[in-house]
Design brief:
Length: 266
Amino acid sequence: MRFILFHIGFLPFTIMDALDIAVMSYIIYRLYKFLRGSRGVQMLVGLIIILIATGIAPLFQMKGMTWIFENLRTIWLVAFVILFQPELRRLLIYVGQSRLVRFFVKVSGSKVIDQVVEAAVALCDIGYGALIVMARETGLRNIIESGTLIQAEVSSALIISIFNPRSPLHDGAIIVQGDLIEAAKCLLPINEENFGHIEFGTRHKAALTLSEETDAMVIVVSEERGKISVAIGGTLQRDLSENELKRILTEGYRYGNTEVKKDGLL
């Protein structure tokens, strides 16, 4: 049964038409937010211009251009996948991490968590400081752009090498998003007004600030104390063991927890 809301001329406008427009508008909006500020936008604009030219060329009887576009039509899909491979990969990761997907499919990101936990424990043992941001739903584009782009698969060896004091990337934080280390040497905001009174160092204050402003989970490996902490939702869990760290990260990804116990915050 069709529930007609009104007519546009002789065309009926139904509830499903309204729903279709709303869903498509939301998808386009989310794609715009996802691609905004990236190279993907520039390539998408170029692709749209080419598609428009493909439709205009036959109208003006431009036989040469029409022939070129008709022959290119067979490879559009392949070219699209090749050109937008990084964006498509990030998009799939973004969709896979969404709250709706996690509700139906319990995505734990166990491989990534295992690598990050292994790296944090190793860094703690050898006395290297570290700041590891585990992104969830909140976009961290500004944070990523403040550092050095890496976009490499998460591995404990890579994380350890990044935070080696002799590495040019060891200052600042790394951003882990999905199964990639997006960037290193990233600058995190520090809210001195809220956390200036805490006796912790810069890393802990930066972790608390970011976790308060976003839903990211921020791991801190203290160079001075040789301890591991996690900031989530503006609170800090300190002196974590390997198993405790893994449990917190797993629950954070699986259930979208935004809080941890406040034991040891102050």
